[in-house]
Design a protein that fits this description.
The protein is α+β, with helices and mostly antiparallel strands. It is built from nine helices and four strands; from the N terminus they run E-E-E-E-H-H-H-H-H-H-H-H-H. Among the domains are: 43 residues; 40 residues, no CATH class; 56 residues. A four-stranded antiparallel beta sheet has the order 3-2-1-4, covered by helices on one side.
């Protein structure tokens, strides 16, 4: 049995308090966990352990939420983030369960948003996107579902358009080689690359008829 002799709000972290037992600092707690405590109250050892366990859970949960505020994350990323902070495995699992319960962690949503973001800002082919999602720890069936409606032809065109305009003055052989390598690095299949290059070449030269005649496909 120990007696609470002081409860003080931390200066740097006002959402946490320091607890003194029997005249000495003992541990800190999240403010909401300390709400029912008061100076002079006696705490049994089991109660102290329970408070500290709940505090560890709260720290892990808030730490994961802080990461999620920056952008959506996969459970794999959240788990690794907590491990880097030396969080115990059982605490990590409880934090993830709580995040799932409140819909903060959802690998299906994460995969869908990842594909949508990539398609809008940095188009990739199915192969590249699948690799990225697997690298983030997303399950294969979830990856397949996120990529089920992917229009690789449209994305290859979107990805290659700016590059094609930069290469407009080049001859056909240079144009084809550079665009092909550019799209291949982004995970597009050979057949789609070939049709995209032909389309881009035709459209770029239709837009800029003043370009001198070059070898065409």
């Amino acid at each position: 049995m120990a007696t609470i002799t002081a409860i003080q709000t931390q200066k740097r972290h006002p959402d946490r308090v320091n607890i003194d037992l029997n005249g000495e600092y003992a541990f800190s707690l999240a403010g909401n966990l300390a709400a029912g405590l008061q100076v002079g109250q006696e705490l049994e050892h089991q109660r102290i352990e329970l408070l500290q366990a709940r505090d560890a859970d709260e720290i892990a949960y808030q730490r994961a939420l802080g990461l999620l505020r920056l952008r959506e994350r996969s459970e794999f990323e959240l788990r690794n983030h907590l491990r880097r902070h030396k969080t115990a495995e059982e605490v990590i699992e409880r934090a993830l369960a709580r995040l799932r319960e409140h819909r903060h962690a959802d690998d299906t949503r994460f995969a869908q948003q990842w594909v949508e973001n990539r398609s809008t800002f940095r188009p990739r082919g199915r192969t590249a996107l699948a690799w990225e999602l697997r690298h983030k720890g997303v399950a294969p069936d979830t990856v397949d579902a996120a990529l089920s409606d992917l229009d690789e032809s449209a994305l290859a065109y979107q990805a290659g358009l700016k590059k094609a305009r930069q290469l407009a003055p080049a001859d056909w052989q240079v144009f084809r080689a550079k665009i092909s390598a550019y799209l291949a690095r982004r995970g597009f299949p050979t057949a789609i690359i070939a049709s995209t290059i032909s389309r881009l070449w035709t459209e770029i030269h239709r837009e800029q008829p003043s370009l001198q005649e070059k070898e065409t496909p």
